[in-house]
Amino acid sequence: MARALVNVPKAAKQGEVVEIKAMIAHPMETGYRVSPNGSNIPRDIIRRFACTYSGEEVFSADLFPAVSANPFIAFTLIATTSGTIEFTWTDDAGTAQTASAMITVS
Amino acid sequence: MHEDPLRVHGGLVGRRQFFRVGITGLLVISLPHRALARPSLDEAIRSFTGGANVLDGRVRLDLPPLVENGNAVGIAVVAESPMTEDDHVRRIAVFNEKNPEANVAVFHLGPRSGRATVSTRIRLATSQVVVAVAEMSDGSFWSSRASAIVTLAACIEDLS
Questions:
Q1: Is A60 part of the contact surface with chain B (CB cutoff 8 Å)?
Q2: In-domain check, residue A38
Q3: Distances (CA, A) of B48 to A22, A65, B39, B45, B113
Q4: pLDDT tens-digit readout, B87-123
Q5: For A22-74, how does the pLDDT look when each residue is reduced to its tens digit (9 = 90+)?
Q6: Is residue A36 assigned to a domain?
Q7: Which residues form the Ig-like SoxY domain (chain B) (predicted)?
Q8: B121 and chain A: CB distance < 8 Å anywhere?
Q9: In degrees to the nearest 10, what's the CA dihedral of A70, A71, A77, A82?
Q10: CB atoms B114 and A77 under 8 Å
């Protein structure tokens, strides 16, 4: 399984806008490259990234082959309640990889 | 034995036909390739907006003007929006001009985002224009474009 890295502040004030960074180790093979023996390298990319905050989806992204290998996405969220922020990356084959982080809101 | 003039004639016609068939064949082979060609930048934006008018402003696309490595180009999109329940950015899409595919990414935001800002890393196959389009909750579209000069291209093998 690919390695995922997420950066979520451990603590935040109620209503504060926090920056979230998420990255996953993935080749993001475009499907346009040719291997040394002349055959096409099949496409294999992360198609969708989603972020849920205490179970509710608050951010998502549809990715295309033009996103670099090891896709990195940074965005912001409003800290509402203490809870878990979950991240899901879904690839072309439909397999999903998840990561999560806790946030304490005071 | 004398040569049959008809046969010679027939052979000549056959050769012409052969060329004609060959040229038609080449055209037929090249057609699907044209059909598979990527949509232009404007077509891609139109399919995202559904034909709605795209205005300039309210969005800022940060793209380095000179890119050394096209395999990982850091971009940031910031849209001016209060990000409230009534007035927020619904989607931010990024398009390119000359990669094999026009789409780069579509981000779905909402009032819980707090700020309409996203950043990521993209591939650029050659020096080109990149456009960011933001869809507001009132249904309006705003865009920003930036161009980059790429010295080391991504996926260099398959671009003419």
A1: yes
A2: no
A3: 25, 17, 12, 5, 21
A4: 999 999 999 998 889 999 999 999 999 999 999 999 9
A5: 999 998 988 888 888 888 889 999 999 999 999 999 999 999 999 999 999 99
A6: no
A7: 48-155
A8: yes
A9: -30
A10: yes
